[in-house]
Amino acid sequence: MRIKINWGTGIVIAMLLFMAFILQYVYKAVTNDKYNHELVSEDYYKDELYYQQEIDKVNNGNQLKDNIRIEAGKDGFVITFPKEMDVSKITGTAYFQRPSNKDLDFEQKLSPTISQLVIKHANLVSGKWNVKIDWKYNDKEYLLKEAIFY
Question: What is the C-alpha separation between 54 and 105, in angstroms, rounded?
Fold first, then answer.
């Protein structure tokens, strides 16, 4: 007995084989721990509620003549504070987030004694970093968000 396959049956078989081919990669991506599926923030719904406060802080920073600057230097990240401000009155936190690996994320309390603060190489890996500096000066809150390549 001979099996005859017409062109319609051939198209259906080809589509089924293609779908099986694609589904094997979907299965591997979902079940393999090598492909990490983590969120940037564990509580992103809760974080969304505070988004307007962040917008107000960013606008406060944009109204400054000189805002905080972040640069990648030879010793690490260099955070430069505005010259017209008394740096001893600046408080806050700098958050360093590595988009590719949340295990490398860290935060640094701001307690500057000079107009620059250097974040040393110890915690840094080359690549993209999302830096968020949430700071306060004379009871006014500011926020700076920047992506830096180190």
Answer: 20
H or E element that contains 49 = helix 44-49
Q: What is the pTM of this model?
A: 0.65
Whether 90 shows a pLDDT value over 80: the answer reads: yes
145/108 same-domain check: yes
Q: How many residues does the chain have?
A: 150
Provide the residue range defining the domain that includes 130: 44-149
**68 lies in the same domain as 23:** no
Q: Are residues 12 and 57 in the same domain?
A: no
CA distances from 111 to 69, 102, 135 (A): 16, 25, 10
pLDDT, tens only, 5-34: 899 999 999 999 999 999 999 998 888 877
C-alpha R_g of the chain? 25
Separation between Cα atoms, residue 106 and residue 121, nearest integer Å: 13
| Cα atoms in the 13 Å half-sphere on the side-chain side of 125 | 10
